[in-house]
Design brief:
Shape: globular
CATH superfamily of one domain: Thiolase/Chalcone synthase
Strand order of the largest sheet: 5-4-6-7-1-8-13-12-11
Bound molecules: octanoyl-coenzyme A
Number of helices: 10
Helix content: 25-40%
Distance between the termini: 14 Å
Amino acid sequence: MSIVISGTGLYIPPYKVSNDELVAAFNQYVEQFNIENEAAITAGEIDALKPSSSEFIEKASGIKSRYVMVKEGILDTNTMMPLIADRDNDQVSIQAEMAIAAAKEAMKAANKTAEDIDLIIVACSYTQRSYPAIAIEVQKQLGCQGWAYDMLVACSSATFGIMNASNALLGGTAKTVLVISPEIASPQVNYRDRDSHFIFGDVATAVVVEQQATATAKHCFKILSQQPMTTFSNNIRSNFGHINRCNPDTMFDTDKMFVQQGRKVFKEVLPMVYSMIEQQLEKTGLQASDLKRLFLHQANINMNTFIARKVLGRDPVGDEAPIILHEFANTASAGSIIAFHRHHDDMVAGDKAIICSFGAGYSAGCLVIEHI
Ligand code: CO8
């Protein structure tokens, strides 16, 4: 049985935050902090905080701006988090709302209606609650039958989700699968941390996965090979979880947000990823020169350029390895799918590509695909 990706969808949140806006708020916070703590800083008890800069952010990461679901609060030095209002249980939750919008676009691209979908996988870095699953809420709102579940593998959630979809099709437990990645990262960003205040944005992506035999869309991509992998690391970590409330003294500490050793991640993840891509190409009997496009995880432009150069043996040209970081920032597992969504319209039968994720865990996932 051949499995294809037959549609993609993208939901862009309503608000944009530029580097300049974030840096202005951060630097105002730094100034306030240093004034308030002047005595302790002078006594050498604590270090003065250093300012951030838009130039550094763009050069180090390639990020120019990001989208967020709620902007209110992020730039206010007294809050520095999005002020997301609670919704009643009978209202659609914010994460389901994002997921539904992306899902509808993917279904349209794949020529599918709610009756066709019999499995929904919500695959992302965080879900706003543990139960009922966001995927089951989306299932109800879309009017689909079958089954649905949530899964979390940080930046590799979308690729692992597509692999799970493919396994469900092969196992006969589903006929048409929606894999949705509503990444609402902004609540987990420490906007007071110079090293990471600029990294993330919110977004939702969706893909439809089905058998080649049922696919009717204009752009269908057969999955030639797929490989997930994980290896434990504390270098990207968040200790946020349901146990936090059991220690009121530490429940709001900064380790409950996104924390990383960015340099270490950069150095350790790169070799892991390009050797994985090489293995996948070998497994499918392909050369790097057979690839029309590399849809890579979007965490850092220098990382993407390095991987593309290593795989291709030269610098990528044109949109061979598309970058969406400048507009969206790091959107965790949605990044490689946004690149795929935005840059596949010109692909024709026989064109091959990879979709590759990498991030916290560590985790990495690689799919080799071919336009049929
Ligand atoms: N402004 C100005 N200067 C700064 C700033 C700033 N904001 N931050 C750091 N600097 C300074 C540093 O102090 C340092 O100065 P000095 O040389 O004097 O010590 C200098 O700039 C260089 O600092 P770095 O070495 O840290 O800079 P890098 O070039 O390494 O860039 C990056 C930092 C951008 C973080 C980079 O290391 C990177 O992108 N690494 C890869 C990280 C990565 O891929 N992580 C994956 C995370 S995504 C993921 O797994 C998903 C998790 C789940 C989702 C979470 C949602 C919230």
